[in-house]
Amino acid sequence: MSDFPPRVRRKVAERAKGRCEYCGLPQLRQEAAFHVDHIIPRAGGGGGGLDNLALACVGCSLRKWARQSGVDPVTGKNKRLFHPRRDRWSDHFRWDGISLVGLSAVGRVTIEVL
């Protein structure tokens, strides 16, 4: 987790409507403050602009770390992770009760990694 000015954190949280942009968990009633995450890690060439920042719950943020891809458990192929600025969440995920289901290789890999 990087330190960001309060105005940047506020903009990221408002855009995300107070939810983790990876799993959808709401910040409301969570003990730990959500992280501002670099979607494409700085180590992988990602910048610090708002278009590369996402609100992430502590679990997703810590598991994602500097990862950009993972192995799809269905195909065994390496695929990229979900990108909150470029992908539409509902194309890749759905909730089945309390379980998050991957609807695509990107969704399955993101669930597997995070």
List keywords for this structure.
alpha+beta; 26% helix; 114 residues; 19% strand; 4 helices; two-stranded antiparallel ribbon; two-stranded antiparallel sheet
Describe the fold and architecture.
By secondary structure, the protein is of the alpha+beta class. The chain contains 4 helices and 6 strands. It has helices at 6-15, 58-64, 89-92, 105-113, and strands at 35-38, 53-56, 69-71, 78-80, 93-96, 99-102. It has a two-stranded antiparallel ribbon with strand order 1-2. The two termini are 15 Å apart. The mean pLDDT is 94.
Identify the quaternary structure here.
Answer: single chain
Average residue-wise pLDDT: 94
Number of helices: 4
* Major sheet details: 2 strands, antiparallel
Give Rg in angstroms: 14 Å
* Poorly predicted regions: none
Report the span from N to C terminus: 15 Å
Question: Which structural class fits the helix and strand makeup?
Answer: alpha+beta
Strand content: 15-25%
> Could you spell the SSE succession in H and E letters?
HEEHEEHEEH
